[in-house]
Amino acid sequence: MVHPIHKLQEEITSLCNITYKSVDGRQLQLDVFVPSKKLGEEPWHELLERPTPTLVYYHGGGWVEGDRFSRFLEVLPYLEKGWAVINVDYRLLQETDLFGGIEDCLDALNWVGEHAVEYNLDPAQVYVSGESAGGHLALLTGMMNQESMRELFAKKRTQKVAGIINWFGITDVGKAVDFWNDPEYTRLIDQGSKGIADSHYKRISPISYVTEDVPPIISIHGDADINVDVGQSSELHRKLDQLGVKNQLVIVPGKKHGGFSAEELTDCYDQIWKFFN
Fold first, then answer.
1. Coiled-coil annotation: which residues (predicted)?
2. Do 51 and 109 meet the contact criterion of CB atoms below 8 Å apart?
């Protein structure tokens, strides 16, 4: 029996440290992992003939820490499934406000659309995902309407999102700030608020952008999470249900902010594959 890791070694080409954006003297980078045939000689790999479903992944870390390298294991199930993966870095709150981080994630998504032909990605099957703060960014990137993006960033989303995979992400920033009750952390989140916190929190909360036009959303959340209360996901999916949006909430009993067992993760991914057929 062929080991699945060896199949990945055979079938996936890694194209790393690609700059998708330069801002304030900083080069923001992403890595592309794409199904291919390894040739053993120049040009070393050959992309598959069929366009590939693609996941764009935003790491977690409370918007203040983490990077794309630290979350590489989170994307392996998608590679094993035969998808391409774009693993993204974005500016943290020490470098910008939350609007800046959200804009970076939008720019990375648009980069995928602009380079879909080059890497043989299927523009009709581009999904966004992330965990915790990365889940928040994935939700916003896929859910914000074009009018809001033009207002906040003077740009629009040029790459359509086929679905969102949210791992215990923040959906209501105002409620999360109250729950955390951390003044120093709140100060970082409040950057860009212009002194109007409530309005600021609404503009950066995915739950503010629930409409019948948002893409299908599946969320995974432990019901004992003490970092991001499971109610954040429950309320989002209640509103999605009200508008008839395709959605699913997978509750992992007794689990906190991740830390799921191998068996639980297997079930979560089975639910993801079924949700997106």
1. none
2. no
Straight-line distance from the first to the last Cα atom of the chain, in angstroms, rounded to the nearest whole number = 27
Q: What is the DSSP letter of 19?
A: E
Greatest C-alpha distance within the chain:
61
Q: How far apart are CA 11 and CA 7, in angstroms?
A: 6
146 with 59: CB under 8 angstroms? no
Q: Please, which residues bridge with residue 130 across strands?
A: 58, 166
Q: How many whole angstroms separate alpha carbon 158 and alpha carbon 162?
A: 13
Per-residue pLDDT of 213-242, as tens digits, reads 999 999 999 999 999 999 999 999 999 999
Would the CA dihedral through 146, 206, 136, 160 be positive or negative? negative
pLDDT at 9: 83
SS percent in the chain: helix, strand, coil, step 5: 40, 25, 35
CATH of domain 4-275: 3.40.50.1820
Tokens of residue 9, six digits = 């070694």
pTM score: 0.96
Helix (H, G, I), strand (E, B) or coil at 217: strand
Q: Cα–Cα–Cα angle for 40, 75, 236, nearest 5°?
A: 155
Q: In sequence order, which ranges of the chain are alpha helices (DSSP H)?
A: 4-11, 76-80, 98-114, 116-119, 133-143, 146-153, 173-180, 183-189, 197-203, 231-242, 262-275
CA distance 125 to 70: 25
